[in-house]
Design brief:
This is Cation:proton antiporter. By secondary structure, the chain is an alpha+beta fold. Helix content is 54%, strand content 18%. The protein contains four helices and three strands. Helix 3 packs parallel to helix 4.
Amino acid sequence: MIGYLNLILRLVIWFLLTANLSVANIIIGVSVALLLPGRLKSPGTLKDWLRAIGEALVAIPQAYFEALQIMLFPHQHEDVTLERVRPGRTPGLIFLDVFIITFTPKTIVLKYHEKGWYEVHWVKRRKAS
């Protein structure tokens, strides 16, 4: 089941990159998705995938809300933090985590450290002194 989710993730990325749903592009996308090597560090569970997809769906309204906040109130303070990667994440789930963090306007992942950390850049409102 998890192999299908990885295949679907690769196809979605392909279609987002090409923005073309012609028959020839679908055939090329399926071929590329099947030919890409898959290295599993640890098998992801369906529960992890469903949680990541749920977080992606929650990130959409959150992104609109943060965009409105940035437009209405100045955000002039920047901060860089390290956030821990959940243990046992497959490369596909790590990609989804990075996508979810970067999708919202106030945060962006600067670097993924192989030791299990995301380096995240935050834009914040400066607190009144």
